[in-house]
TrEMBL record, chain A:
Record flagged with keyword ATP-binding: yes
Protein name: Magnesium chelatase
Pfam families named in the record: AAA_3, AAA_lid_2
Organism from which the protein derives: Mucilaginibacter pedocola
PANTHER family: MAGNESIUM-CHELATASE SUBUNIT CHLD, MOXR FAMILY PROTEIN
GO molecular function per UniProt: ATP binding; ATP hydrolysis activity
Key words, A-Z: ATP-binding, Nucleotide-binding
TrEMBL record, chain B:
Native species: Mucilaginibacter pedocola
Keyword Nucleotide-binding in annotation: no
Occurrences of domain Protein-glutamine gamma-glutamyltransferase-like C-terminal (ranges): 184-238
Signal peptide residue numbers: 1-21
Protein name: Protein-glutamine gamma-glutamyltransferase-like C-terminal domain-containing protein
Bilayer-crossing regions: 112-131
Organism ancestry: Bacteria, Pseudomonadati, Bacteroidota, Sphingobacteriia, Sphingobacteriales
Keywords annotated in UniProt: Membrane, Signal, Transmembrane, Transmembrane helix
Amino acid sequence: MENEDFEQRTDLGQLSAAVEQIKATLGSIIVGQQHVINLLIAGILADGHILIEGVPGVAKTLTAKLIARAVDVQYSRIQFTPDLMPSDVLGTSVFNPQSTAFEFKRGPVFGNIILIDEINRAPAKTQSALFEVMEERQVTMDSHTYKMAEPFIVLATQNPVEQEGTYRLPEAQLDRFLFKVEIKYPTLEEEIAIVTQQHQQKTVEQVADVTPVLKGADIIALRKQVRELYVEPKILAFIAQIVHETRNNRSIYLGGSPRASLAIANAAKAIAAINGRDFVTPDDVIYVAAPVLRHRIMLTPDKEMEGVLPDDVIAQIIQKIEIPR
Amino acid sequence: MLRITCLFIFLLFARAGFAAADTTAVPVKKGVKADTAKIVKVPAVVKADTSAVSIRRFNDAAIKKYAAQPEFKYNEVKTGGLSWWTRFWIWFWAWFQSLFSKNKTEISGFAVFMKYFFIMTGVAALVFLILKLSGINMLQLFRKKPYSAISYSEAVENIHEIDFEAEIENAVAVKNYRLAVRLLYLRSLKQLSDAGLINWQINKTNTTYVTELTDATQREAFRRLTLQFEYVWYGDFVINGDIFKKINTLFSNFKSKAE
């Protein structure tokens, strides 16, 4: 605990150690992107799904694969394509001639960490197959409901919608992602480090060398710890006010839902835990506000045409609200 | 005799034909001789009709029977009286048209008022429709501050208007150490703001103020104070008199060094 004047209430030792190990593992392969790594870890601790967006070639898939490999759970990968069918994701019933009965063959979504690569290359029909499993952690097929094993995390990557051959994801699905993490181009220094690192290693396969840091049971225990962190009522009101303001802002056509408020609260707790605190500060809330809200709000057409970004509007909203103190 | 009869018939038809066709006088051209033939009146021979006439009359009972049926009352138009509501609207629209009539010479003051009242109402309705269709939030249109449903008691608190020494004394007197630490922290912010070391804004976090300090020693000292404040205020850690004394000493040292 950073402040030794007070008695420790929550033992965040295991969590802090695991976070440091994951950061070190990812940091050895991925140059920079500390903010992205923090959010990915926070997403796992806050029991949320994460959407990673970036232009081709900025290590979206590598980052997602690394974070998945850092956790010792069942991992599966689905490459989304325009002709992918819901049954290709969820599974389908197949007739077994020996037993003369239909048997449900589970699809690749049955796992703990699901990496959906290029999620926005599949049309809405396939996207809607994910609605139930992402929110309710279950799949209903042929009047049977199959519960997903915990932890269940969807890590999805996508190119920006402006890229060729992509679809805009349905709002209902976007709302199911805790974060939309944007991976930007590296700085010049970072790019030099990437090239140098790749040149010195003289190997292509890096993901296989990653040692798992956490087991599934560890994640479940850490999530429970994160959920129990303290949030001052004024900070809860601060969160609610941020989301409320998105519904009254003239630049926004569709504001954040109450699910967004809950997501900010949970994500802020996870960030507080990563920072070694068992309580949330306004800084934690502001840190997660944009990643939680940017894919949930819809700008008005005129603002979109002006080139205004959701992050700009979110920043303006936060600047208008007094920090609880 | 036959010639005379033929002439009579010719003249008769000729006369009738001229009378019907054209009554305008036709000038007689020179060299044309006037017709001087005499018209001979021939008495018509009309025989009286002496055949017996039988007068047929309508059956009064049948007429009455049919007349009683509504289907045969062709001439009756059901006019009925206009309702008061219809009459009101007829009057209203007539009056409304008269307000905007250009031919009206005498216009009362009330009529002028009503005329402009209707114009203003129409303009207001048009503006409302445009704003509504364009999706502009009318609550925010004329507000300087953003619309807020939640009010904070701290929101109206201005650090430059608080009597910190008195308030801290009061808080310590009632052993409300949590509030006392908060006031100590706000006092430090005011001190830094007054010294021009930070730019006080309600939307800045504590971390922002820490990073605004350029002097490393002062920044570290203030970071320490911020940590204490956050544990007490945001973390709701239990604070007793002994811990408060330690924290109060830190704040007092910071205050004396910053002065």
